């Protein structure tokens, strides 16, 4: 750190996202409905500018801006990861629809405002990670949450409405608990700055501090998708458009874990409460519940939802040992980046295929070998299979927990990792199994559906695997297939690069 600064240019990445959102919102006011492509371009340029500015800022000096916002590796990595991930989601959303469950065919195109909401939620996520004051954290938490509630209901059907309602109610309830924790901490320490809390909490009553930390954790675990704030994840992932589902299961998690790690290192360690054991138990409950619930899912989106819950459990390992050794922070940051790349790749396949059931993916390898290979790489990556990036993320997270005195937690996480292979293989095996060919139905035999096809257009009959959109939705499929393949390649490249780095850095 190089001290405190008050230069607004230090916040240039955040200003790019804010400017893109404001300009996009103004464009929405003047453009006719259904012609929102310029808004997508405006938001994409804002994200690209923010990504470039964040990359440049990462090489600059650290410090604190306006005495409440940190410029350090946690903030820099969050800026880059969130901007890049949101840019990918904007690409997926640009061709998506609201009515189709997978954001593909069969529905009204997403409104242009979706891109503005994505940018605002991404901005809140970044600020949440960099906040060094509880008041700034709360403001960022709200900015990251409120646009998400609107995004979840974009489907405008019963599933989307239910998803948005559950998301909002859980967010409001757990957000109130977080505000209660902030109030208690301020009352106990007389300050909301992380540094001030770290200096004054040791002299505060331990029972009151423990209550404050538990209630504060409620909102953070909600954003991270961890137990007990995980209930919204499956319904929102299934009910929202696929691009939105990819966003809410990836981007908020980055900011939540970065913020939680900063809190743990900033003032959790100063308290006498056994917060490490609490988070360790939450980690075990989260990864175990996520894996057990995913075992028998036939809907690929719900499977990914429970997968992301289990990943939250693994990501808690470095947080548990925050302040014990130098491995925890890089382990968390690398794991977050690896998870973001891999999870977005899996959701890109869902967008490209256009079907949410496992049987919709049967024979995908015969229709699109590259897409099938990308899916296999991403799913095996989520398991933690070498040489993917998540493997090295999990390896460093387990090593951090082991060296930090929580060897039992690393063993439980390794056992859960082995157990997770089962449900990922339930998705991978049908992909490489020969599937039935969908025959074009004559006009008289066409099956009506939401967003019904016109006469002469092939409509899959019940029980017959969908053609996956690879042929039926060439425009959208090309973009989604490209995103999936690039994500899979990036996962392997990151894994290989980290493996080389570990080899060169070893004894």
From TrEMBL:
Mode of membrane association: Multi-pass membrane protein
Protein name (database record): NADH-quinone oxidoreductase subunit N
Function: NDH-1 shuttles electrons from NADH, via FMN and iron-sulfur (Fe-S) centers, to quinones in the respiratory chain. The immediate electron acceptor for the enzyme in this species is believed to be a menaquinone. Couples the redox reaction to proton translocation (for every two electrons transferred, four hydrogen ions are translocated across the cytoplasmic membrane), and thus conserves the redox energy in a proton gradient.
PANTHER family: NADH DEHYDROGENASE (PTHR22773)
Stored HAMAP family: NDH1_NuoN_1 (MF_00445)
GO MF, one annotated term: NADH dehydrogenase (quinone) (non-electrogenic) activity
TM regions (residue ranges): 15-32, 39-60, 80-100, 112-129, 135-155, 167-189, 201-222, 242-263, 275-296, 303-321, 333-358, 370-393, 405-425, 481-504
Species this protein is from: Streptosporangium carneum
EC number: 7.1.1.-
Domain of life: Bacteria
GO cellular component entries: endomembrane system; plasma membrane
Keyword hit for Metal-binding: no
Lineage summary: Bacteria, Bacillati, Actinomycetota, Actinomycetes, Streptosporangiales
